[in-house]
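WP5 quarterly update. Target: Methylmalonyl-CoA mutase family protein. Source organism: Salinimicrobium profundisediminis. Length: 106 aa.
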Amino acid sequence: MSRKDLQHLKLKNTEKDLKRPENTCEYKDLPHLNFAAGIPPYLRGPYSTMYVMRPWTIRQYAGFSTAEESNAFYRRNLAAGQKGLSVAFDLPTHRGYDSDHERVVG
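Structure tokens (predicted):
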């Protein structure tokens, strides 16, 4: 199956048809705009609805010296609308410090 065979496909979201931005004149000649996702050149990802039905999540990778500090930070971010956590369980080691290094606390 070629890309041309898939040009008739139209993805829909749960609310209504997807619409392109108003200023599409500068993008109209880009060859990849009508490619189906999951078909090379994989511009959306390996699945046809990638990032259309489920947007990217933006997370902050973090960890602190104590469980209390880490927990407070994660709870603040979740309360502010963050959708998930990227937890650094051993951040000093991840950053290249030995656990007995003088700058490592906790």
